[in-house]
Amino acid sequence: MTTFDGARWAEGSTRSDIREAVDADLREDVSYLGNLLGRVLTESGGEELFRDVERVRLAVIGAYEGEGDASVEQAQAQVDSLDQARAEEVARAFTCYFHLSNLAEEHHRVRVLKRRGSDASDASDSLPATLAVLTDEVGADAAAERLQNLRFHPVLTAHPTEARRRAVASGIRRISDLLEERDAAVNDVARDDTERRLLEEIDTLWRTSPIRTTRPTPLDEVRTAMNVFDQTLFEVVPRVYRLLDDRLQGGQAGVNPAVAPAFLRLSSWIGGDRDGNPHVTAEVTRAAAEIAAEHVLLGLSRATSRVGGTLTLDEDDTPASPALAALADTQRALDGDLASRIGIRSPQESHRRVLLFVAARIDATRRGDAPSPTPRPTNSCST
């Protein structure tokens, strides 16, 4: 069977002890992804391409583990024997492999954290455990006050050495999602389907140019950062808030007000820093803010539409609270035509109508044709 197996790199080497110390799940993931890449290389470039990759791989291992200059010279000779086109293919093969290996490590790290989080006896580094230690040290009142003042302020910044294209980053993200599906597969049919899609994604990754052919502009860097925002931060941050409240309040979470405030404040230097970069102008900063606003508003609109679409509560059984009814009146006064169109699609569903109206107004704000802000109630809209 054709393989490009990372586990084999350490066979018979002085690194075997280190390899044995690595969790079996991680070794299995690296080996599995390496096997799939080997299949892709063979199908794409034939057995000769795979053999060239293997020769270089073994020569480099020999240079790393050997003594003296002979092994290094042998590895250099293997590389020098490749013509330019083949050398590029081999380099891309190793680039793909290292992308997949790094992805496997990240996937394994998440898997370990999930397992740790499911074990209450192994959560000493969690926020609830930290709060418990703080309570012991300063008392419950002081600990609660500090929790209310909690702030986490990450700042996005462009990495000057990051040449990876958004297309490559997106492909790696899709492969990561498929690895999670593979972990959760309950039968051979599901696993076979996941493997087929993994092969498709790895083949696409192999055929995608790994680096840019032009220097990224500040706005390219903004779009790359917002791609990360869309796929991770926008979805993960609410889950972190919910998880923290679940751990702090237990069964009362979601019933009582949250104990901790929304403590994350996200900022970005990209497209806005004035560190002497002549390409970052006032116009670029304005465009960067508009791109960020577009992504945030689009995410909010989709989330609001998704939630609104599920709140199909009949008014006879679940009537609107006075606050929700007042908000619905305000919406009708603000844009009667829009409220009427939504009402036709959602009769007897006041909760759904209000949220779909909010989603439509967010979209209007995103498009720049919403002269007035979305009205906000002064108190709770719960039923």
Give the helices and strands, then pairings.
Blueprint: H1 16-21, H2 24-65, H3 70-80, H4 84-117, H5 127-138, H6 140-148, E1 155-156, H7 166-184, H8 188-207, H9 218-249, E2 267-268, H10 282-310, H11 322-334, H12 336-345, H13 350-367
Parallel strand pairs: 1-2
Please provide a written account of the structure.
The chain has 383 residues and is an all-alpha fold. Helix content is 67%, strand content 1%. It contains 13 helices and 2 strands, in the order ααααααβαααβαααα. A two-stranded parallel ribbon has the order 1-2. α2 (24-65) runs parallel beside α8 (188-207) and α11 packs across α13. The longest helix has 42 residues, at 24-65. The termini are far apart. The model is unreliable at 6-19 and 377-383 (pLDDT under 50).
Gist?
The chain is mainly α and 383 residues long.
* SSE string, helices as H and strands as E: HHHHHHEHHHEHHHH
User: What is the β-strand count?
Assistant: 2
Enumerate the spans where pLDDT stays under 50 for 5 or more consecutive residues: 6-19, 377-383
Radius of gyration of CA atoms, rounded to a whole number: 27 Å
Please summarize the sheet with the most strands. 2 strands, parallel
Mean pLDDT: 83
Distance between the termini: 62 Å
Helical content class: 55-70%
As a percent range, the share of strand residues is under 5%
Lateral strand order in the biggest sheet: 1-2
SSE-based structural type: mainly alpha
Summarize this structure as a short list of keywords or feature phrases.
single chain, mainly alpha, 383 residues, disordered C terminus, 67% helix, 13 helices
